[in-house]
Each structure stands twice: as structure tokens, then as C-alpha cells.
Amino acid sequence: MLFTALVALLVTLVLWALYFRRSRLPNEPPLDRGAVPWLGHALAFGKDAAKFLSKMKEKHGDIFTVQAAGKFVTVLLDPHSYDAVVWESNNKLDFNKYACLLMERMFDVRLPDYDPATEKAMMKLHLQNKSLHMLTKAMFSNLNTILLHDREKLSPEWKEEGLFAFGYSVMMRAGYLTLYGNESVHYNNPLLQTKDLEHSAEVYNEFYQLDQLLMKLARSMLSTEEKKEATRIKKHLWELLSRRRLNAKVNRSSWLDSYRSHLEELGVDDVMQSKALLLQLWATQGNAGPAAFWLLFFLLKHPDAMAAVQAELESVYKGKGQETEAIKQEDLDSTPTFDSVLSETLRLTGTPFITREVLEDMPLKLADGREYRLRKGDRLCLFPYLSPQMDSEVYKDPEKFKYDRFLNADGTKKEDFYKGGKKLKYYNMPWGAGNNVCIGKLHAINSIKQFVFILLTNFDLELKDPDEKIPSFDTSRYGFGMVQPRSDVKIHYKRKKSVRW
Ligand code: HEM
């Protein structure tokens, strides 16, 4: 019975797809529907977008349209032409529709009268400018709690751990405490810090398990068991982020309080507020930890880079950075070598899609004068990871880590990169660009810098296997920000007997 129904459904789908078969109209980008009706290239796209889109680029050039699960997606891979997309008005190329779809699918969030522009303007105010200093100070304090007050990390004996687990958990726990608040007023009191250590570990453990299911959730590909597990974890996290729990916290960031007031004004009930706060937990904590992991991994793999960063940290921070002091912004801004290492790390591992829904039939003019037509109802997608970030025309040996790639000979920041003999405006785009660039970028950079500073100042660390290869990527994460390694990399670390600087 079920089999017959399935066959009937399949036949209907095939007939439907054949009947409504789309063909390429004049001036439209090359069209590649794939062999399977309706489904098109969905599986290859989702499994490894970098591999699939590279193949399509070889076949069709830097703009083409592919079919994936009933949707037609036009992919643009010419970085000189990205301006025509990233600044286009939301009335033509809409960012919100697809974002809302993912919000609901991944986090069960539906907000009434949701206006992302208002929300974004409010959040910017609390993640940048004057608020940045408060966040930096709180992050420094929370990193100290997590790194220097955890008994397990205190002993001067060598310990073994996975670097990804280590980096992600420290960054996420400290980042969470910074934005969502501490468990107790006197958070410099070691006894009371225990509460923050325990609570942030509980949140991280659940968050990490959910993070491992999110890519399948986004593609609606969870098995029944995985669905149950995702629901269980979400419920636990909603409770941890409930009004009652948050009201009991101290040192909540102005970002959190303003966001909660904003949800109140929208008339969002308590349950939906917790769901929205879990979505924000992922938006704010899902990338910085993996970025810190890759940066530390590349430093450990490249002793010349590690020596250059250590020398810079020593010269900038000598005599500063005691446990209870925040690091001044002017010091955080005086590290061109570290900045180059971070840019190079993100070039290699930052892989967001920039996605827009096409709301009306419209022309798309590329930088070299070519003009294409975009069709209403299609989706437009940029994948800067392929170009400019991994483009051999822009970067020599693009797959290699070169710590000084973003440094000029005089040690200043290098910003001139070329493609086709023309200087690129967008040469590295891990933070997105235009209307939906990351608004937490400055806080993220300060946080990663402080983490590495405290870590290298207070701990010795090394790869367990010095010949460790770069771990392969979990390719299902392409398009969602930072990639994660398929498997972890073991390190040895121990607390230094005395701090050198
Ligand atoms: C290395 C770390 C990070 C990277 C690579 C990164 C990257 C990105 C990217 C690519 C986007 C655009 C997403 C899209 O358009 O779909 C984004 C958005 C966003 N990021 Fe980050 N991010 C990082 C860390 C952070 C941190 C630490 C925060 C906050 C504390 C943050 C807050 C946000 C927010 C709120 C948005 C949504 C902005 C909007 O409404 O358009 N990010 N981030």
C-alpha cells in the first residue's frame, strides 16, 4: 500500500517536472537542472558545496543557475561583481525570507512583525562603539574564569585534550557568560566562580550537541531518533535560557537586555523568547570558537608564525594583562601580525553563503559589462570561499597557510589583491558583506585575541603529533559560516610555572 503510494507520488513528481520543465531564456545564466527531476543537484550541493560549485564553475563559468530541491539557485562567483548583490535593496534581493525559513526550521522561531532592519540597528548599538569596551572587559574576566580558575586546567602536569573541544568550549563558555550574564555578583570570588564554571559547562555541552545536528536540521534531513534528540536538547536549552533563569543573572550585557525588551515590545511570549534566545546563542557563539581552533592549529603547525605572534604579543603587552585587568583597545589594535594570522585563518576556513531571494524579474549587471536576467522566485547565492578566498588568481598557493599573507613588507596591513589585473574591493569575506555583514566582528576579533593572549601567556601547548595533518573539513557545513574539522586534533598542554611577561 505504502509502496504503491510512493511510486504514484514519484511518477506524479516526474510528470509534473517534465511538464513544467524550465528552459533557459535569452540573457539568463547557463541553466543546469541535474539528472533527477525536481531534486536536481540538491544532494551534491548539500554534501560538499565547494566541490560541487567548483565543478559547475569549470563547466559554466562564474555565473550559472542550478536546480536544487525544486528551487532554482543562481550562483555568482565573480568577486568584482559582488557589489551589485550585497548592497541591492531588500525589495529586489531579499535577505529575510531565507533567513526566516532557516530560523523556523532550525530553532522553531516565528516572530510577529519581525523587522530585521530594526533588530539589527538595535543590536549594532550594543555590540559596537561604546558597548564594545564593556564587552571586551567582561570577556577578559570570563576568559580568566574559564581558563585560569578551572581546577582541571590548573595543575602544572601535561594534560591531553582535543584542540577543537578545548578552543570551542573555552570561547563559547566565556562568550556566553559575557552576553547572557554571570551566575553571581562577586564573580571575581573564586568560590562563586565555580557556579559560572559549572553552569557554562552545562550550557556548552548541550549547545555543542545541538550544533552537531544543526546542518541536518537546516536541510530537514534528521532521522526520527535524531529529531527526538534535537527536541530534547532544545527543550533543555530553552529552560536554561528561560526568563526565570536570565532574571536571576548579574552582569547581563546591554545587548541581552535590549534584545529581550525588543521581544517584549513585539508581544513575544516567554516560550518564544527562549527560542529566540537560543537562535541568538548560535548566531553569536557558533563561529568564534571554531575560528579560535583553526587559528591555534595553524600556529602550532607553523612555528615561524607562532614565533612571530609570540614576539608581537610580548612587545605589545609586556608588563600588562594581569589577571584582573582588561586589555586596552589600543593594545588590541596594535597587532598587525596577529591580524594577518587571523585573516589568513578565516580565508581558509570561513565559508558563508551570501543568499538573496529574487523578488522581481530584474537585470544583473556584472563588473565586466555582461548583463543577465534574474527570474522572480529564484534564489541568488554568492560563495566567496571559492572566489576570492581560494582563487589562485588572487592568492598564490591558495590552499597553503601563510601567516604574513596580509602584511606588507613594512609590517602594515596588506589590502591590495588583484583578479584579472583589477584591484579587488572584496578580497576576503568570512564576515559576509554589505547589508548583512557580521555585526559582532569587532567583539569576535577582540575575544579571539584575548583568548590567545591569555592562553599563550599562561600555558605551554603543543600538538601531540607534530606531523599532524590539517584535519579534513566537515563539508556539510559549507555555507554556514566557519567550517569544523571532521575529527579533533590532540594537543598536550600544561599551566606555566611562572608567567614570563
Ligand atoms: C570568527 C567569528 C565570526 C564570524 C566568522 C562571523 C560571521 C558572520 C557572518 C558571515 C554573518 C552573516 C550571516 C548571514 O548573512 O547569513 C554573521 C552575522 C551575524 N553575526 Fe557573526 N561571526 C562571528 C562572530 C560573531 C560574534 C562573536 C557575534 C556576537 C557577539 C556575532 C554576531 C552576529 C550577528 C548578530 C549576526 C546577524 C546580523 C544580521 O542581523 O544580519 N558574530 N556573522
From TrEMBL:
<keyword id="KW-0444">Lipid biosynthesis</keyword>
<dbReference type="InterPro" id="IPR002403">
    <property type="entry name" value="Cyt_P450_E_grp-IV"/>
</dbReference>
<feature type="binding site">
    <location>
        <position position="105"/>
    </location>
    <ligand>
        <name>substrate</name>
    </ligand>
</feature>
<keyword id="KW-0443">Lipid metabolism</keyword>
<dbReference type="GO" id="GO:0001516">
    <property type="term" value="P:prostaglandin biosynthetic process"/>
</dbReference>
<keyword id="KW-0256">Endoplasmic reticulum</keyword>
<feature type="binding site">
    <location>
        <position position="287"/>
    </location>
    <ligand>
        <name>substrate</name>
    </ligand>
</feature>
<keyword id="KW-0472">Membrane</keyword>
<keyword id="KW-0644">Prostaglandin metabolism</keyword>
<keyword id="KW-0643">Prostaglandin biosynthesis</keyword>
<keyword id="KW-1133">Transmembrane helix</keyword>
<keyword id="KW-0479">Metal-binding</keyword>
<dbReference type="GO" id="GO:0005506">
    <property type="term" value="F:iron ion binding"/>
</dbReference>
<dbReference type="GO" id="GO:0004497">
    <property type="term" value="F:monooxygenase activity"/>
</dbReference>
<feature type="binding site" description="axial binding residue">
    <location>
        <position position="438"/>
    </location>
    <ligand>
        <name>heme</name>
    </ligand>
</feature>
<dbReference type="InterPro" id="IPR001128">
    <property type="entry name" value="Cyt_P450"/>
</dbReference>
<dbReference type="Pfam" id="PF00067">
    <property type="entry name" value="p450"/>
</dbReference>
<dbReference type="GO" id="GO:0008116">
    <property type="term" value="F:prostaglandin-I synthase activity"/>
</dbReference>
<comment type="similarity">
    <text>Belongs to the cytochrome P450 family.</text>
</comment>
<dbReference type="InterPro" id="IPR036396">
    <property type="entry name" value="Cyt_P450_sf"/>
</dbReference>
<keyword id="KW-0408">Iron</keyword>
<protein>
    <recommendedName>
        <fullName>Prostacyclin synthase</fullName>
        <ecNumber>4.2.1.152</ecNumber>
        <ecNumber>5.3.99.4</ecNumber>
    </recommendedName>
</protein>
<feature type="binding site">
    <location>
        <position position="111"/>
    </location>
    <ligand>
        <name>substrate</name>
    </ligand>
</feature>
<keyword id="KW-0456">Lyase</keyword>
<dbReference type="GO" id="GO:0106256">
    <property type="term" value="F:hydroperoxy icosatetraenoate dehydratase activity"/>
</dbReference>
<comment type="function">
    <text>Catalyzes the biosynthesis and metabolism of eicosanoids. Catalyzes the isomerization of prostaglandin H2 to prostacyclin (= prostaglandin I2), a potent mediator of vasodilation and inhibitor of platelet aggregation. Additionally, displays dehydratase activity, toward hydroperoxyeicosatetraenoates (HPETEs), especially toward (15S)-hydroperoxy-(5Z,8Z,11Z,13E)-eicosatetraenoate (15(S)-HPETE).</text>
</comment>
<keyword id="KW-0275">Fatty acid biosynthesis</keyword>
<dbReference type="GO" id="GO:0020037">
    <property type="term" value="F:heme binding"/>
</dbReference>
<keyword id="KW-0812">Transmembrane</keyword>
<keyword id="KW-0413">Isomerase</keyword>
<dbReference type="GO" id="GO:0016705">
    <property type="term" value="F:oxidoreductase activity, acting on paired donors, with incorporation or reduction of molecular oxygen"/>
</dbReference>
<keyword id="KW-0276">Fatty acid metabolism</keyword>
<dbReference type="InterPro" id="IPR024204">
    <property type="entry name" value="Cyt_P450_CYP7A1-type"/>
</dbReference>
<feature type="binding site">
    <location>
        <position position="379"/>
    </location>
    <ligand>
        <name>substrate</name>
    </ligand>
</feature>
<dbReference type="GO" id="GO:0005789">
    <property type="term" value="C:endoplasmic reticulum membrane"/>
</dbReference>
<keyword id="KW-0349">Heme</keyword>
